[in-house]
Amino acid sequence: MTAITLTNWILGSFLGLMILLFIFRIVLTWYPQVNLNRFPFNLVALPTEPFLVPLRKLVPPLGGVDISPVIWVGIFSLLRELLLGQQGLLMMLSHLN
Length: 97
Fold this sequence. Notes:
- The chain is elongated and about 50 Å long.
- Helix content is 70%, strand content 0%.
- It has helices at residues 3-28, 42-58, 68-84, 89-96.
- The protein is mostly helical.
């Protein structure tokens, strides 16, 4: 396994996992009574909260709805496509070798 293939696998797994966690986080916002500090909800909250806190300072809730998890899904999806998509940077680099 080459370094580029390993990088693609690790980065793809990380970005995919983060997208999934943020989608779960979006679903959890529909249930405000859920305590995010309790298991199993903290498995979603702990890795996503460091990304959400700074963005919440920049983007206030719209109509009382926190849209920061939706923005992060878009950012991670864009990164995944730009780097690992069919014509992504890392994919093109892997075809050069």
